[in-house]
Amino acid sequence: MAAAKKELQLQLETQVNALQKFQKDIAKNHQVRRQYTIQHGENEMVQKELELLNDDANVFKLIGPVLVKQDLVEAKTNVNKRISYITAELKRLDATLKTLEESQAAKRDEVLRLQQRIQGGQPGKGRA
């Protein structure tokens, strides 16, 4: 009986550790997604500003401490590519997050089942 209880405790500990890893991965995903969302908003703002410019307007790009003149069409193309890339990354992060959340829910269910098995094998212990 004691060996079975120890085995259940070890299984529970393993599952709890796996659950905590999923929680950390989800938190990291949220952090990265937040950064991409900020970048997406900034790039959309730049895109709107570039659309307001005349075709002969001077556009400069900050590279390190230097402003470098850039063609308006090239600037618009670069911003559109960045927005496309960020949008694709956000979709990828959303898909990853969905998978992580599903895995987390499954692990949580497994932890609860193990806890119930452990508690079920301990008559006389009160439920608080």
TrEMBL record:
Keywords recorded for this protein, A-Z: Chaperone, Coiled coil
Annotated InterPro entries: PFD_beta-like, Prefoldin
Transmembrane segments: none
SUPFAM superfamilies attached to this UniProt entry: Prefoldin
Coiled-coil stretches: 90-117
Similarity remark: Belongs to the prefoldin subunit beta family.
Protein name (record): Prefoldin subunit 6
Species classification: Eukaryota, Viridiplantae, Streptophyta, Embryophyta, Marchantiophyta
